[in-house]
Amino acid sequence: MAAVTTTNDAEFARARAAMPGGVNSPVRAFGSVGATPRFLVSASGARVTDVEGREYVDLVGSWGPAILGHAHPAVVKAVQDAASRGLGFGASTPGETELAELVEARIARPASEPARPIERLRLVSTGTEATMTAIRLARGATRRDLIVKFAGHYHGHSDGLLAEAGSGVATLALPGSAGVPAAIAAQTLVIPYNDVDVVREVFATRGADIAAIIVEAAPANMGIVPPQRGFNAAIARIAHAHGALLILDEVLTGFRAGPAGWWGIDPVPFAPDLFTFGKVIGGGLPLAALGGSAQLMDQLAPLGPVYQAGTLSGNPLAVAAGLATLRALDTAAYARIDAASAAIADAAADALTAQGVAHRVQRAGSLFSIAFADTPPHDYETVKAQDAFRYPPFFRAMLDAGVSLPPSVFEAWFVSAAHDDRAVGQITDALPAAARAAAA
Ligand code: PLP
User: Fold this and answer.
1) Measured from the CB, is residue 171 less than 6 Å from ligand 1?
2) Which major enzyme category is it (predicted)?
């Protein structure tokens, strides 16, 4: 191991003098958990290593992409091979088509109508771009301006989607963002989640002007808040009855909740018009996508009037990482993730129960989070009403024991196929002391 020459505190002080808050994405600053961020130098499998040479079992997973574990050999090799052929061409490559074909084949549900809802895919570089473009496309296709979004859902940081957003916006307790013109914010109607009546009401009054509803397939940016049974199907029906589209944001859940994302396992089938993907689809490199029917997607330039472009779109290294990741995500990999996830969630629940700490394990497929509440939160208001003050001491105790949790109670715990018995055992061993800290 390389000699330790610095500390996390020293790196954070230096970073803060060079970058706003010392970070390039807000929740990395650890502000809400009262700790110094770990400055990482390497990662492998279920573990990450910081500048002090300390190793942690990781439950952040690069915020989702590291579903096979960090630096999976097949993914690293694919990226190295691609790099040896050139870092990017600004031209089309066969790999992009291969990735599009793979996603189109994978997002399939034989008993549904349509069985294969993605006929065309556009690759972009971030989830923010994917949702931003999906919204522009929905507006262009319907010739309407209004968007419906749910409080507590996070769809990236484009202007129109930051109102009452989850993730870092929730962690920092912001109502939205400064710098968003009121005229743009007014085009987004924010309503409570999991309440079909409110969706009906908003369409009854504004339906003729609504281009689309955008929804997290299973919300994971206010902690996990699963959709009530049939919710996605109900809002699809309402949107379609009014000539509006449903944009299903699977940036976080796509290829994680299952081979066909949350859409593939939602107990009530439904037909979204556009899907957005990110995180897992890029295997750890910057890649995201949006997809839908040919009729809709072909309204994008160069065929149609809705413009979108990107210097790095479909970058060959990112495509190679995405392809290698999706190919390795077989039934056995999902079974490993599901089993590890269940074991960790159950152990966390047992540890908190033993200390008398009110909590709920919130689950959506293999995704889970802990809410410090008596009853399961079902929307942003009930999420915010939990005893969130219990999370920072819980988080710090886990970190002290060598387990890296997401640094916010409003984030999911990301388990990977590399979380083997030893990694799960380390997490389980750390939980009783963390539960005691949460109880204090
Ligand atoms: N949509 C969802 C559901 C997300 O969870 C995120 C990021 O966490 C985004 C969109 C934005 O993706 P990105 O951070 O790649 O811009």
Assistant:
1) no
2) isomerase
Q: Do the Cβ atoms of 83 and 241 come closer than 8 Å?
A: no
- Asked if 196 and 231 touch (Cβ cutoff 8 Å), the reply is yes
CA distance 72 to 420: 14
Task: Read off the pLDDT of each residue in 106-134 and give the average, rounded to a whole number.
Answer: 93
Sequence letter at residue 414: F
Question: Can you give the CATH number for the domain in which 433 is found?
Answer: 3.90.1150.10
State the pLDDT confidence band at 174, using cuts at 50, 70 and 90: confident
- Closest to 335 measured CA to CA, from 259, 264, 250: 259
Distances (CA, A) of 174 to 247, 279, 392: 24, 24, 19
Token pair 């290294």 is found at 317
216 lines ligand 1 (CB under 6 A): yes
Given the structure tokens 């069985």, which residue do they identify?
A: 115
Please check whether residue 23 lies inside any domain of the structure. Answer: no
Beta-bridge partners for 322: none
Average pLDDT over residues 124-132: 98
- Crossing angle, helix 421-439 and helix 391-400, to 10 degrees? 140
SS3 382: helix
Burial of 30 (0-12, 13-18, 19+ CB in 10 A): buried
Residues 207 and 228 in one domain: yes
In the predicted model, is pLDDT for residue 156 greater than 90? yes
DSSP annotation of 30 reads -
279 is catalytic: yes
Are residues 348 and 317 part of one domain? no
* Residues 217 and 287 placed together within one structural domain of the fold: yes
Q: Is 273 in the pocket of ligand 1 (CB under 6 A)?
A: no
- Interval 345-356 mean pLDDT: 98
**Set 50, 58, 249, 266: catalytic member:** 249
- If asked whether residues 224 and 105 sit together in one domain, one would say yes
Angle CA(345)–CA(153)–CA(105) in degrees, nearest 5?
80
Q: Is the full-model pTM beyond 0.90?
A: yes
Domain that holds residue 56: 8-12+44-61+330-439
To the query of whether residue 9 is one of the catalytic residues in this protein, the response is no
Whole-angstrom Cα distance, residue 11 to residue 22? 9
